[in-house]
Amino acid sequence: MKAGIVGLPNVGKSTLFNCLSNAKAQSANFPFCTIEPNIGVVNVPDPRLDKLAELVSPEKVIPATVEIVDIAGLVKGASKGEGLGNQFLANIRETDAILHVLRCFDDDNIVHVDGSVDPLRDKETIDIELQLKDLETVEKKLEKVTRAARTGNKEAVKEKGLLDELKTALEAAQNVRSIEFKETDREEFIRPLQLITDKPVLYVCNVDEQAAKAGNEYVEQVKAAIAAEQAGPGLLVLAVSIEADINELDSFEERQLFLEDLGLEEAGAAKLIRSAYNLLNQQTYFTAGEKEVRAWTVSIGATAPQAAGVIHTDFEKGFIRAEVIGYADYVAFGSEAKVKEAGKMRVEGKEYIVQDGDVMHFRFNV
Ligand SMILES: Nc1nc2c(ncn2[C@@H]2O[C@H](COP(=O)(O)OP(=O)(O)O)[C@@H](O)[C@H]2O)c(=O)[nH]1
Ligand SMILES: [Mg+2]
């Protein structure tokens, strides 16, 4: 899974990125590696993985990961090549989800590119740039499809209709994710276009310390604005700068105390990653053996063969069956052997829908 951080300059994107990069907050072990200066891989914090590791004592413990990209350089006019805009817009296209950071804090020392704090205006500025980029994509496609539609090709006529609809909506400053289409049309014609404003978005309201728990007036404005958007994007209130400070602390206990002082139960990094999972309808299953205990990411509703395919495409193609232990059973009985003894290990076939926390073992032919 790959998520891109967008937002105007000076709203706290890099602070958030760095905060994730230092995120030791959830457990003692929460490493991060930076691939490029603006790309990092964050481990998905999951206490269940720690518990399984404790029970199995494997050689290796491997968490699920999310790749985070700090996409700088988006400014007004970016879609027309202002700033470093265009180059970075290409980066966004490769992500599965967008984390849109909005400045919701006052601080006269931090310059705002447009002179004042106004998260709704900022949101609109960024949205419009992304919509313009999508419009470009749609217009290019429309040119091709229009030619085909002239020959009377039924499929092309239908596609042209949908593209016209897209174009009109984008010109009216709508995001693609909030346009209503029939699900089948969306699947067949809209998704393949990989439009930026079709991607799921999580709005991160960056507030100051005092507003970390309850939010503030700016956050309320953002909430009201996105409530009007149909696909119901997520919103997260984070005091990014203070979260970064907390992550500087060495011990887990110290960090936890600091969080509690702010009235928070959980570090922002963990909250953010969890929200991204929810946003993308992702869940976790585990494999547990002496060599390694590992968390894997799979879509909610995925079948057992699809889950196997996350490990290797051969596992999916040659899938025979899965041996499944519910996480609660694994913990209750304490080991695979004891679960088997108790008759709680299930053998599931191709139709099985994976449940969050399943501990799975796949049988396959290659
Ligand atoms: N007061 C305050 N300053 C912040 C906050 N978040 C970021 N900053 C500061 O704003 C400036 C710009 O932040 P940065 O993360 O580099 O913004 P970017 O341009 O969006 O990547 C830095 O000086 C940060 O320390 C915040 O929540 N409160
Ligand atoms: Mg930055």
Written overview of the protein:
- The structure is a single chain.
- This protein is an alpha/beta fold and 366 residues long.
- It has helices spanning 13-21, 47-56, 85-93, 119-150, 154-171, 183-190, 217-227, 240-248, 252-261, 268-279, 304-311, 313-317, 327-333, 336-341, and strands spanning 2-6, 32-36, 39-43, 60-62, 65-70, 97-103, 201-206, 234-238, 282-288, 292-299, 319-325, 346-348, 359-364.
- The strands form 3 sheets. Strands 2-3-5-1-6-7-8 form a 7-stranded mixed sheet, sandwiched between helices.
- Helix 7 (217-227) links the parallel strand 7 and strand 8 (234-238).
- Helix 1 (13-21) runs parallel beside helix 8 (240-248) and helix 4 (119-150) packs antiparallel against helix 5 (154-171).
- The protein is flat and about 65 Å long.
- Bound molecules: guanosine-5'-diphosphate (GDP) and magnesium ion (MG).
- Residues 7, 9-15, 105, 107, 110, 206, 208, 239-241 line the site of guanosine-5'-diphosphate.
